[in-house]
């Protein structure tokens, strides 16, 4: 799938509309929505980690070389956290409003559905502009043979965006058909075969791939390379030990999340899962810090001059 569509579309569009659709199946209406409460918002580290993980997967999908991978990662981190921060209040408000409707058991009237459609359309259109600008920039980075797969992927993604916009236009008319939405798109965000839904987050090979890219990016000498691989080996061993401890809890939570119908309960279980996996993420952060400590000032200088607001590429965060 192309670039930030997975993270951005599911976060800003599919999830809120699916929650609204579930609420629409329930009881009486409250015509005037209350001001939405502030709800969960991922930390900057979580957002950055999600886009770094996305860059890794896109790099694998299109067989990017190191230069392409670094340019892609830079582009994602320069554009998407800023976009999410600029639109945080709207996104948080829409999601909070939908979850609140679900918790109260409200059945929105056609007028209320139309009002929601009118309010969400500008955000969706901004999202679409952002997606198309990002994918256009990424396409320019690709070699001709890589563009063949990319163009096919993006055409499929564009069909999904068109369908989404049509759903919102129906909502502006007071029409929303949750069963039809679920038949077209499936249950939002829950694909047990998705690469990110591995048992305990990104696999050990993700850490190895990150370390190998770090070695190449900074042209480590033999002594530094030996130290980097020793650090990787140490942390992978400690990770395996911790996975033994948390494995059963992770499996139970994933099973419960997979069958959960209530969005509020699912969100709470996903928060619990992130807490359980926190020791693994702490090791990923330690890998970043210890590898970074190997660098000399001369090795850091080009990165600092070229990208003054970024540290070296970090290992992928644990996927929630």
Tell me what the structure shows:
This protein is an all-alpha fold and about 325 residues long. It folds into two domains: about 5-190, no CATH class; about 195-305, no CATH class. It has helices at about 5-25, 45-60, 65-85, 90-105, 110-140, 145-170, 180-185, 205-215, 220-260, 265-290, 295-305. The longest helix is centred in the last third of the chain and has 38 residues, at about 220-260. The protein is globular, with a radius of gyration of 21 Å.
Specify the number of helices: 11
How many strand units? 0
Largest sheet: none
Distance between the termini: 19 Å
**Average of the residue pLDDT scores:** 75
Radius of gyration, CA atoms, in whole angstroms? 21 Å
Number of domains: 2
Shape: globular
What fraction, in percent, of the residue positions are helical?
Answer: over 70%
Helix/strand-derived category reads mainly alpha
Order of helices and strands: HHHHHHHHHHH
Low-confidence segments, given as residue ranges, are: 1-37, 179-204, 307-320
